[in-house]
Structures are given as structure tokens and as C-alpha cells.
Design goal:
mainly beta; Porin; 15-stranded antiparallel β-sheet; three-stranded antiparallel β-sheet; 1 helix; 58% strand
């Protein structure tokens, strides 16, 4: 069995014809929580619990969907816990941790179905936010910037049957990654709608194995509408672009790309302190490097609590 694992891993990692294992589950990486929202209200603490599930079952070469002879499928499940607090009139912070489970299935025909899975606590994100234009009722606009750091607390050296899993199946990356962040909001009270945009930039370092994930920018552009109390309807586009991964100074062929999703959501404002959000992400456009699995859908459920 160990020999089968080893041969399959080598074939997936270096074959020019088949999908590269490294390009599988990074496209299912979780949304970055507090990087999508502005500062917490003055004197308030914000807690959030989010569950997010992504299924990847379609193979792409560039922007073209192709048939995958190995019938590969992957599932990425993430549970995120977030804490936000306003430190002063213009300063706030967020801490985001998560637990991740990533599994991949490969159909080997007569040899059966090969399953690989990695799970555990993921890396920790800390973000310091600064309000350039604080949100005020008179102007109903906010502009904020931030800097942060992703700390490598998650595991990145998991073995299955004595063989190291590919990096995209690990809950952690093993690298310290600086972050930059930008957020803008515009309201129109007494009208019931508003618009928002958020951008998060990640600059990954190399982990102790010499593996470096590609640079990443993630962004949300959208608006919300209070259709009827207590419901808010949210229409937004989620975009994500990553560069190629690098291992020992060499770029990995089937890694990185550009993804766009429609991400409609519904907010249920249960109380002044509690809100529930349901979100569905549907793919709009992909352009990947090499050949990779791409997400078919993402479903997310989030609970927010403010005190």
C-alpha cells in the first residue's frame, strides 16, 4: 500500500499530462473573514463563527473545462473563529483562526479509488485596521486600511501511509505571510441600500521545506439591500488571483490562476447583537495555470455576535 501511495504521489506531482496535485484545493481556500468587513463599532467586540464547504469536481486547462481521466474530486471544509475589537477612535484589530479538512478522491479504475485527506488547525491571521475616513451618519462613508500577518500555527507535514501529503491538502502552510488590506463603504440612508468593496493582499514567505505559495489578492465588490426587516439581501462578486507556487526556486506548473464567483447572501438580523448569514458562491470565470481542479460551488453559514 505504501508503494501505491508513493507511485501515485510521484505521478500526480510530476506528470505533464495529468492534473498537478498542488493545484487542487488551494482554490477552495476559505474566505478571509474580517478582511471583508470594516472596523467593529466603538466600544464593541465582535465574534464570528463561520462554516464553509467547497466542492471541486471540474478540471480546467486555462479557461477551458476538460475531461479528467482520473475523475478527481475534492472537498474543502473550513470552520473559522474570529474576534474583532475597536481599540480607539480610528484603530481596530481582528484575529482569525480556523480548522480545515481537505480531502481528494482519485479513481484508479481497476486498482480502486484512492483517497487522501489532511485536517487540523489552520494558520492564524492577525490584522490591525485604521479608519482613514471613519463611518459617520452624516457622510455615510468609510475608508479603512490595514496591515497584518499570517502566523504558521497549522500543520504542513502530514503523512498518509508513510508518504507526505501534497501541500494543498495541509491545513497550514508553514510560512509567515505579511498582509495588506483595504476597505470602502458607502451608505445612502434613509434609502435601504449600500455599496462596499474590500481587498486583501497576501505576500507569502517560504516555509522550512523551501515551498512558497504564490502571491494572492482576494476582493469583494457588491452591495446590500434591506428588503424587509429583519432580512438583508447581498449581491457581490468575489475575485481571487494567485501567482504560481515556488519550490526550491522553481515554479510549479499547475498552480495559481484567476477565479471569479457570484456570491449572493442573505443576512438575518435576529437581534441588535446577533446576525446570521447564508452565502452561496457560484463560479463565473476561471483561468488557471496548467491543469487544475476548480470549485463547482461553495456554501457558507456565518453567525455574528456583538457585545
Amino acid at each position: 500500500m505504501k508503494l501505491l501511495y508513493a507511485l501515485l504521489f510521484i505521478g500526480m506531482a510530476f506528470s505533464g499530462e495529468n492534473l498537478n496535485a498542488q493545484g487542487c484545493c488551494t482554490a477552495g481556500s476559505p474566505s478571509l473573514g474580517g478582511l471583508q468587513t470594516g472596523l467593529s463599532p466603538a466600544g464593541r467586540m465582535t465574534y464570528a463563527l463561520t462554516y464553509e464547504s467547497t466542492r471541486l469536481a471540474s478540471a480546467y486547462r486555462g479557461s477551458e473545462q476538460i475531461a479528467d481521466r482520473l475523475g478527481r474530486k475534492a472537498i474543502v471544509n473550513n470552520v473559522s473563529v474570529e474576534f474583532g475589537y475597536r481599540l480607539g477612535a480610528r484603530l481596530g484589530m481582528n484575529l482569525i483562526g480556523n480548522f480545515s479538512s481537505r480531502s481528494r478522491e482519485v479513481n484508479l479504475g481497476n486498482a480502486g479509488v484512492f483517497n487522501s485527506k489532511g485536517s487540523g488547525v489552520g494558520d492564524l491571521v492577525a490584522l490591525l485596521k485604521f479608519d482613514v475616513l471613519p463611518l459617520e451618519l452624516a457622510h455615510q462613508r468609510e475608508l479603512a486600511v490595514g496591515v497584518g500577518l499570517k502566523a504558521p500555527v497549522g500543520r504542513f507535514r502530514i503523512e498518509q501511509e508513510g508518504v507526505r501529503l501534497s501541500y494543498d491538502l495541509h491545513p497550514g502552510t508553514g510560512s509567515w505571510d505579511p498582509l495588506l488590506w483595504l476597505y470602502a463603504f458607502k451608505g445612502f440612508l434613509p434609502r435601504r441600500y449600500n455599496f462596499f468593496a474590500s481587498f486583501a493582499f497576501r505576500f507569502p514567505g517560504a516555509n522550512p521545506d523551501g515551498y512558497r505559495i504564490g502571491r494572492e489578492v482576494t476582493y469583494y465588490l457588491g452591495g446590500s439591500y434591506r428588503c424587509c426587516n429583519p432580512f438583508d439581501l447581498i449581491l457581490q462578486i468575489r475575485g481571487r488571483h494567485t501567482g504560481k507556487d515556488v519550490y526550491l526556486s522553481r515554479q510549479r506548473a499547475s498552480t495559481g490562476g484567476t477565479w471569479f464567483f457570484a456570491a449572493p447572501a442573505v443576512n438575518l438580523n435576529l437581534l441588535n447583537q446577533v446576525a446570521l448569514q447564508i452565502q452561496y458562491q457560484h463560479p463565473l470565470y476561471f483561468r488557471v495555470n496548467g491543469e487544475q481542479l476548480a470549485p463547482d460551488r461553495t456554501v457558507a453559514l456565518a453567525l455574528f455576535y456583538r457585545i
